[in-house]
Structure formats: structure tokens, C-alpha cells
Specification:
The strands form 3 sheets. The chain has a 3-stranded antiparallel beta sheet, with no helix packed on it. It has helices at about 1-10, 20-45, 55-75, 85-105, 115-135, 140-145, 145-160, 185-210, 225-240, 245-265, 265-285, 290-300, 305-310, 315-325, 350-380, 385-410, 430-445; strands spanning about 10-15, 165-170, 170-180, 180-185, 215, 220, 455. It has about 450 residues and is mainly alpha-helical.
Length: about 450
């Protein structure tokens, strides 16, 4: 009887966790060890001893990273195993450098410290990333809210212009202030706009790609199909004029150009978009005083008038000297003087890291970013859903473009814009937005592959 009962027993499917999650756990241990080593080196170099403060800046990000890992094991077991460890390494390195700059501030008698605040924002950002993974089951959930995302994005962009809560810092009106806490809503707006762009372009990609008349062998879209490009261009100019922010203007318009090119496959849109971007930039450099000062500091940074001017090239020149001082191998964490550069913990954290880690360390950081972006593009390549493809491209490219604009400004390839380096620079709104992007890439990568369930007969 027992043998018959066992033979008739219904087989139960048992979910087997993929080996990629074990690889992710191994990489997280390596990332945690690397971040602990960075903090220990800074303390030994500056304080000449190790203190328990190390755990204050090391433990919260590591614990939240492993919490995310456990959530992925249960809710997104097929997610990409490299994305989370890379984000932890970059975030931890940023905290370590900000802590190093805080120690220099304390030594000089200053009181404005950023490292502990960065740790708290990191914990909050990673907690919200966990919520995103838990409560957004797939890209199909977001597809229902495409135009809601557009409205949210527009509202977030306009919030800093309101007279009561809008705040101007360093000449740019990008922040809102509530109960003593400043926040940059434009960072979240870019996520909402990526969702809207993805839904809009999926719905209109056929008319954008094939409709229109041919002129000199080039198919020119109808005027109403060119309308979205004109609207986004005007919105970018509006950000430049009203909020006095060159970087955000470039970011939004460049993001839309890439997404429309990926959606349609037509170089025409990219070409006309770049022409509009260059034209707008040149006109702004002649009509807007703060843009012309940025261009003067970019083209002639060592000219005495530009060097001494308020908002001139002093910051750029100091950053260049700092990177030159680092050389190939760097001065070592805690061994340089990156605090001599204004805003070394935010706008110029790349030059701070390049001084103390050297050219080799600088390229290692770039390699981590390239790997992160390539994993995001791989998600887009593997996904069968067009909406998810465009979102993955948008989320990946916004990190790549922001990094290019920031490093371009620090190294004088581009005018200085004031954008933050993803995960590294001090700033809560930037951290929050980038960890949401990480969560979205993890969710999209989980739905990009066919799940396989192993059935074991007992």
C-alpha cells in the first residue's frame, strides 16, 4: 500500500536558484572587502590608526546590498549578476572619497561634512530600489502608466521654479527645499521621462521610421512626426534659460535623440537633433551670460581674467593640476590634496579620485562604468519586448551620457556643466535616481530570459 501511495504521489515543482545568484553573492563579498580596504587605507594614511568609524561608512551599504541580493533570489532570480556588485563598488568608493575629504575638512577646522549624509542617502536609495524590485513585477506594469509618467516628469521639472519651495544653488534653479532638506527633482524626472519616451516611441515608431517624402534620396518625416523632437528641444532650451543648467539640458535632449534613433533606426533624427543641439548651444553662448562664462573658462582656462573671475576657470585648473599630481599610479588614498579643488566631493570627485588613484585607477573606474552600461545594453539586446528594450537602452544611456558629460567637463573635452557623477558624487537625489535605475535594470534583466523550472519527482 505504501509503495502504491508513493507511486501515485503528485510531483511538486521545486524552484532552483540559478548559479548567477551565487556568482552575485561572491562578487558582493569581494565588493564589500574592497570598500573596507579603501576606508582602512584612508584612516591609516590620515589618522595613522583604524577606528570604529570605519563601520559607520562601510556597514550600511553592504547590509542593504545583501538585502537586495536576498530579494533578487526570491523575486528576480534570473536578474543580471554583475549589475548590483558594480553599483556597490562605485557607491562604496564614492563614500570612501567623501569621507577622506571630510577628514581634510576636520583637520582644517571646517564643519561642513558630507560622508555620513551620503551613507544615509545610500541606505534610503537602496531601500527604495528594493521596493521597486518587490512591487514592479514586470515592464507590462509600467506600460499602463506611460502618460502618467510624462505628467510626473513635467511636474518634477517645474517644481524648482515654484516661488516657495524652489531653491537656487550656485546660480542654478534645480532644487526644492522642504523642512530643511534640499532635493533635485530633475533626477527623478529623467526616470519618468525614459518610461514615457519608451511608450511613445513604441507606439509611433512605424510612422516615425517609414512615413514621409523622399528628398535627395532621404526620407523626410512629416511635420507632425518631427513635432516631438521640436517639443523636447524647446523643453531643453527652457531648462537652460529658466533653470540656468547646461548639463540637464544636454542630458534630456541627448537621451531623447538616442532613444528615437534606437526605436526607428534612422540616422536622420540623430543628425537633425545634433544640429539643433549645437545651434542651441552656440546661440546660448552668445545670449546668456552664464553660458558664455562656461565657454570662456573651457576654451581659455589659463587666461588670468578667466582664472580670477567669479565662476571662472579656477576650479577646472585646480582639478587639472590635481590629476597631473596623481600621475600614473596616484598618491594613494589619503596621500593627495584633493581638498584644494572647490566642490571636490561633488562636481569634481572624479579629479579627486584621479589624483589619489592615478591614471590606472581612473581607467579602472571607467571600466566599471563601461561594464555596467554594457550589461544594461545586453538586457535590451536580449529582451523580446520593444517597450522593455527601449527602457533598458534609456536607463543605460543616461548613465553613460551623464558620465561622458561630467568627465568631459573635468578634463576640458566639454564645457563644465555641473552634473553629478553617478554613484560617486555627494548628493541624495542623484543616488536615489541611480539606484532606482539599477533596480529597473535588474527587473528588466530578470524578464529578459525564459525561466526554467526543474521538476524533481520524489
Amino acid at each position: 500500500m505504501n509503495a502504491l501511495t508513493e507511486a501515485l504521489q503528485i510531483s511538486k515543482p521545486i524552484k532552483v536558484v540559478p548559479r548567477s545568484r551565487n556568482l552575485e553573492a561572491l562578487l558582493l563579498f569581494f565588493a564589500a572587502g574592497l570598500n573596507a580596504f579603501e576606508l582602512a587605507q584612508i584612516q591609516l594614511s590620515i589618522l595613522e590608526r583604524m577606528t570604529t568609524d570605519l563601520f559607520t561608512y562601510w556597514l550600511p551599504p553592504v547590509l542593504f546590498a545583501f538585502l537586495l541580493h536576498l530579494i533578487l533570489r526570491r523575486r528576480a532570480s534570473e536578474a543580471d549578476p554583475l549589475i548590483l556588485p558594480i553599483a556597490l563598488v562605485l557607491n562604496g568608493l564614492g563614500i570612501a572619497m567623501i569621507y577622506r575629504l571630510d577628514l581634510a575638512t576636520i583637520a582644517s577646522g571646517g564643519a561642513e561634512l558630507f560622508a555620513f549624509r551620503q551613507v544615509m542617502w545610500t541606505a534610503l536609495a537602496m531601500a527604495i530600489a528594493a521596493i521597486v524590485i518587490l512591487y514592479i513585477p514586470s515592464q507590462l506594469f509600467l506600460r499602463r502608466y506611460v502618460y502618467t509618467a510624462m505628467a510626473v516628469g513635467i511636474v518634477l521639472l517645474l517644481l524648482p521654479l515654484l516661488p516657495v519651495i524652489g531653491t537656487t544653488i550656485n546660480g542654478a534653479t534645480l532644487w526644492i527645499s522642504l523642512f530643511g532638506v534640499t532635493f533635485q527633482p530633475g533626477e527623478i524626472a529623467k526616470i519618468a521621462l525614459i518610461i514615457f519616451f519608451s511608450g511613445y516611441l513604441v507606439d509611433r515608431k512605424d510612422s516615425l521610421a517609414v512615413v514621409g517624402r523622399k528628398i535627395l534620396g532621404i526620407r523626410i518625416p512629416r511635420g507632425r512626426e518631427l513635432g516631438p523632437i521640436l517639443v523636447i528641444w524647446l523643453a531643453s532650451i527652457g531648462v537652460l534659460v529658466l533653470q540656468r543648467d547646461l548639463g540637464t539640458s544636454i542630458l534630456y535632449f541627448g537621451l531623447f535623440l538616442v532613444m528615437i534613433y534606437v526605436a526607428t533606426g534612422r540616422a536622420f533624427y540623430a543628425g537633425i537633433g545634433v544640429a539643433m543641439l549645437i545651434t542651441g548651444g552656440l546661440v546660448a553662448s552668445r545670449l546668456l551670460d552664464y553660458v558664455s562664462r562656461r565657454f570662456d573658462a573651457w576654451l581659455n582656462p589659463f587666461e588670468q581674467a578667466n582664472y580670477d573671475a567669479v565662476g571662472g576657470s579656477y576650479q577646472i585648473v585646480q582639478g587639472i593640476f590635481g590629476m597631473a599630481n596623481g600621475g600614473l599610479f596616484g598618491s594613494g588614498l589619503g596621500g593627495g590634496v584633493p581638498q584644494l579643488v572647490p566642490l571636490a566631493e561633488s562636481d569634481f570627485i572624479i579629479s579627486s579620485l584621479a589624483e589619489e588613484l592615478g591614471l590606472i585607477g581612473f581607467f579602472a573606474i571607467l571600466a566599471l562604468y563601461f561594464l555596467l552600461v554594457s550589461r544594461g545594453l545586453k538586457v535590451a539586446f536580449r529582451h523580446s519586448d520593444e517597450f522593455a528594450k527601449l527602457m533598458a537602452v534609456g536607463f543605460s544611456f543616461v548613465i553613460a551620457l551623464q558620465l561622458f558629460v561630467v568627465i568631459g567637463g573635468v578634463t576640458r573635452i566639454l564645457p563644465l556643466t555641473g552634473l553629478t557623477t553617478p554613484f560617486l558624487a555627494a548628493g541624495g537625489s542623484s543616488l536615489l535616481a541611480n539606484w532606482i535605475i539599477i533596480a529597473m535594470l535588474l527587473r528588466l534583466s530578470d524578464s529578459a530570459v525564459d525561466r526554467q523550472t526543474e521538476v524533481i519527482t520524489r
